[in-house]
Amino acid sequence: MGASFEDVNAEGSFPLVIVGGLSGAGKSTAIDVFEDLRFFVVDGLPASIVPKLTALFSGQNQLQFRGLVVGMYFRDRTFPQSWLEALEELKLQGLKPQIIFMEARNEVLVRRYSSTRRPHPVAQLMAMDGKEGDDCGPLSLDGAINLERERLYPIKKMADIVIDTSDYSVHDLRKMIQRKWTALEEGEGRLNIQIISFGFKYGPPAEADLIFDMRFLPNPYFVQSMRPLTGKDEAVAEYVLGVEPGKTFLVKLREFLEYLFPLYEAEGRYRVTLGIGCTGGRHRSVAVSEALYKSLKESNYVVSIEHRHVELG
Fold first, then answer.
1. Which of 75, 174, 175, 306 is 20 to 30 A removed from 168 (C-alpha atoms)?
2. Is the whole-model pTM more than 0.85?
3. Is residue 59 a contact partner of residue 12, using CB atoms and an 8 Å limit?
4. Closest CA relative to residue 15, chosen from 32, 37, 46, 30
């Protein structure tokens, strides 16, 4: 479990969470979630000020808060290099910041910006610097999103949690952040494994490191009594995994991952996200994901699970 308030205070350290990601992907919602969890939250500070803020926070009565949450400031000409330097400085202070990275598909971000009519921060910076797009005109919204995605890749690579918010309502997103943070908090300092079931007809999760295709398994969709069920139901799980080839496949998949995870940890990886897909994301991928989640939890891995398309399939 995560350290208690007394443990944190005694050690002179505290939980530090950095929330960043693509503009419009849900950073504000994530920060609100942590504020509700009784974290002290600060947003809009330049990266160079953050190490000074943490020094001030550590000198206060930390019993009032569970920790400190800082939102990444995007409107900075030196971004993201300034944040990479700030993260190194925080580590020199003895802090271990946990990074949460929010992202979404381009078409979703374009729709969100179009509805708010707010300028994209990268486009603003380019205009202030007098730089133009490749077509010798103002940078388009889609171009600004692609440029920001490219610039933020080093931050995403370091993140402990990556959340694609494309298909979530605000309420669903809040629940997902709480769930993933709880799993990370319980296994601080260890490899964080995220399992996402999905439907190929809706698209694979952008944050997945590994994609496994379950469409070779028997499909409960064609059994009338099972069609309204999901992979969480015992009848579906037994139909998919109780016989061959599902039975042997699950054993082989687990053996492969048991071999792979230590190699990721030795490489210094913070997390591994597994995408488990079938046609609609309702039956086979959910059944395999649930079985894998249970197996990994029983072996004391730090693991979270998300069924992205179960209600759509």
1. 75
2. no
3. no
4. 37
The strand pairing partners of 193, in sequence order, are 272, 303
Q: Which residues pair with residue 272 across a beta bridge?
A: 193
User: Whole-angstrom Cα distance, residue 197 to residue 241?
Assistant: 16
86 is in an annotated binding site: no
End-to-end CA distance of the chain: 35
CB 196 within 8 A of CB 308: yes
Is 225 marked as binding a ligand?
no
pLDDT value of position 6: 35
Does 189 carry a binding-site annotation?
no
To the question of whether residue 27 is assigned a binding role by annotation, the answer is yes
**What confidence tens digit (pLDDT) does each residue in 39-55 have?**
999 998 889 899 988 88
By the 10 Å C-beta count (0-12 exposed, 13-18 middle, 19+ buried), 266 is classed as exposed
pLDDT at 7: 37
Contact 105, 54 (CB under 8 A): no
Question: Domain residue spans in the chain?
Answer: 16-183, 192-307
Instruction: Please identify every stretch of the chain with a pLDDT value under 50, giving residue numbers as ranges.
Output: 1-12, 132-136
Residue 23 marked as a ligand binder? yes
Predicted confidence at residue 127, as pLDDT, reads: 61
DSSP character for 108? Answer: H
Strands (E), the chain: 16-21, 40-43, 68-71, 98-103, 161-164, 192-199, 210-213, 271-278, 302-307
For residue 190, the model assigns a pLDDT of: 72
Q: At what angle do helices 246-266 and 284-298 cross, to 10 degrees?
A: 50
The confidence score (pLDDT) of residue 136 equals: 43
Domain 16-183 indexed as CATH 3.40.50.300: yes
Distance CA 281, CA 223 (A): 16
Query: 12 a known binding residue?
Result: no
Which residues, including other chains, have CB under 8 Å from residue 91's CB and lie 6 or more apart?
97
Query: Which single residue is written with the structure tokens 């989640």?
Result: 293
* Encoded tokens for 163: 């959340």
